[in-house]
Amino acid sequence: MKKIIGVLGTMVLAVLTAGLVVQVPVHAAVENGWEVVDGNAYWYENGVKQGTEGRGKEIYDPGSNAWYWLDAVDGGRMAKSKDVYQESKADDEGNMGKWVRYDGEGHMVKGWNMNQSGIYYFDWIYGTMAKGYTTIDGAEYYFNADTGILERNLGKVPEFGWKNIDGNDYWYEGHVRQGYSINPSYRGKEIYDPFTNAWYWLDNIDGGKKAVSKDVYQESEAGDWGDYTDGDGTRRGKWVRYDSEGHMVKGFDRNANGTYYFDPIYGTMAKGGAVIDGVLWHFNVTTGIHDDSDGCNLEPFSDYYKFEYAYKWGNTSVLSAEDMAFYNGLKACLDEACQYATPYEQELAVHDYIVLNCEYDDVNYSNDTVPDASYRAKGVFVNRTAVCAGYTDAFQLCMDILGIPCIKVSGTADNGREIGGHAWNAVQLEGEWYMVDVTWDDPDWGDRVYYNYFNVTDEYLRNHHHEYTCEISAKGTKYNYSNFPHQI
Question: What percent of the chain shows pLDDT beyond 70?
Answer without folding.
Answer: 92
